[in-house]
Amino acid sequence: MTILKNRLQKVRNFAKPILNKQKRLFVFNYHHIGKIGAGNSVQTLPAIHINALKKQIRFLSFLGRFVSLDQVHDYKNLSGINFCLIFDGFSHTIYSIKPFLSKYRIPYTVALSPGLMNPKTLSSDKKQQDFQSEYLSWKDIKKDFLNDPLVTIACYGHHVDVTSLSRQELSRSIKQSYDDFQNHLNFIPPYYAVSCGRISQNLAYDLSEYLRSYGCKGVIWENEESIGNLITGAFYKQMMHLSGKQMLSNRVIQSLIRGFYKSYSGIVDILPVSDLSENQKCDVQEGSDPLPGLMAFENIVTYGKDYNSDENLYHYIYTGNPFKYNRHDYYAVFCNERINSMGYNFHIQFVLRENPVNAIIWRGWRRLPNANKLGSAQTLLRAMKQEPIIGAYHSSPDARQSFNKMWKKIEVSSYHFNVSALKDNLLTSDVSYTLEIYDNYPSELDSLLEVINSRYFFSIYRSPQFYSWKYDQYPLAKAAYLAAFQKGSPIAYFTILYKMNIVYISDFYCDAIEGFLFLLFQLKEFCLKQKLESIYLETNRDDICQWMKKKLNIIGITFTNNYYFNPRKLRDKNLIKRINENWKNESFHETQACGDVLIR
């Protein structure tokens, strides 16, 4: 036994640096504890002997840490390897393991099915009678589990195959379950364990929609194929979806090995393709309200990114957008009452020949894994018909395929470097500037904005209103403005966003590179004071790109911003002709401000 422990310790020490970078969670589901097939219908379900269960727990405790669902949800006190124990069905045999779990302070979850709880209802179904005979009463739960700090109580529904229910039936079933908990325990369970466990895209969507109103923190699935969960951060607005495995006596090592090779960070990764239906009838709808279905959609396609399910952020980006006017915020494809794919209008103004034009940045173009691809394309086509200008910032490879020859393209270089790379001897300019730093947009830059908007034939329209809204009110990071003055007049500025140890030069302007370099080294001092370590920059200015290459020895990563001009909406024939003929010769000023705000 000592030799085995020593070997396991070596394996754990070797894996520790790797595991600390990514938290892995294994969810083990148990049903009946006792002999298999020893009596009634319940005992024919998957079972584990009490001694085997104790051995599993002792073995797992050496490899990692047992944690509660709340610890996972809040991303607190996790180790490299973590385990959650869940007892589904809640047979009275739970009492055989409860003293052991209490002795070693091991947290666990019990999933209760109100449909099988006492008071018992008469049933002619022998199997149903057997289930009820095994179940504990509400009184037992109150006495021995409700106030136990080691116990998390989850809702197990009404013990029906929820994958077979319609949306309306599922909604009623969830309501009935939570009503029962409220009536008997005056308590709403924060987690939902899927009865019969099978995962599907439609069910994941429906649960994400319906459970949201009950303040549900997470859904636990039973999935034989994938048991390893990668946990990368805390959840605040989204529900976490965890994949668990039904455990028997001899499956621990096999499950762990498989879980390391099949560890998933999002629910999208574990959705089966069986829901695929290219022939579904789809309907494209325009809207502005943050529907529950919209948040359910985001909970799946952007799993782990809470800000996309945050209504406050939605209101900032869309409802409170000063350039929205009376336009819609999104185009959604509905199939069978569910949002199948989505595209958002990030309202903005561009300058065309010194004139501001209301337009959009095409944002968050996403679809469910089994969505109709043709239906998804309809969202962009709808936007192209209604907007005079559409910008597509740093699009994904899949999206870029849709930006054909009709779209104008501008190449942009992206740089990421450490603050320490800015050596003082690299700043050789003798030009004297003075620096001012502001927490909010300063009116002192108004005159400089007029210069910018008149200089470029096409770019985003920079205005005090634009900066005050997009940066000063941005809820996910801090903003600041670094401005360089010469003889009392502004000649250059940086608009920065910073969070944790990262700072983005989100927007900037300088007539000559000397102004840019002055502000860059002033930003270095700002970073040292704020303990910021990394700087991000995006630009298409050749002089800056050449300096980055020669002085910092950094070659930027190139990406493309795409722009579409709708001739029917622009109406100015001379302007359209100039766009088509002179696009390659025109100067542009591309920065991160040309897209939606990115730092999260």
Written account of the structure:
The chain has 600 residues and is an alpha/beta fold. It is elongated and about 85 Å long. Strands 13, 14, 15, 16, 17, 18, 19, 20, 21, 22, 23, 24 and 25 form a 13-stranded mixed β-sheet that branches. A hairpin with a 2-residue loop joins strand 21 and strand 22. The protein is 32% helix and 27% strand.
Summarize the structure.
This protein has about 600 residues and is α/β, with parallel strands linked by helices. It contains 19 helices and 25 strands.
Helix content: 25-40%
Structural class, please?
A: alpha/beta
Shape: elongated
Rg from C-alpha positions? 29 Å
Main pleated-sheet profile: 13 strands, mixed
Number of helices: 19
Low-confidence stretches are 16-20
* Distance linking N and C termini: 48 Å
- Percentage of residues in DSSP E strands: 25-35%
Average pLDDT number: 87
What's the total number of strands? 25
List the helices and strands and how they pair.
Blueprint (H helix, E strand, L loop, with lengths): L1 H18 L3 E8 L1 E2 L13 E2 L1 H14 L1 E2 L2 H6 L6 E8 L9 H6 L4 E5 L13 H9 L3 H7 L6 E5 L11 H19 L5 E3 L7 H10 L7 E5 L5 E4 L8 E7 L5 H10 L1 E2 L17 E6 L4 H10 L9 H9 L10 E6 L2 E15 L2 E13 L5 H14 L2 E4 L4 H4 L7 E11 L15 E5 L7 H10 L2 E3 L3 H7 L7 E9 L2 E11 L2 E9 L2 H18 L3 E6 L2 H10 L5 E9 L1 H4 L2 H10 L18
Parallel strand pairs: 1-5, 1-11, 2-3, 4-5, 5-6, 6-7, 7-8, 8-9, 9-11, 10-12, 16-17, 23-24
Antiparallel strand pairs: 1-10, 13-14, 14-15, 15-16, 15-20, 17-25, 18-24, 18-25, 19-21, 21-22, 22-23
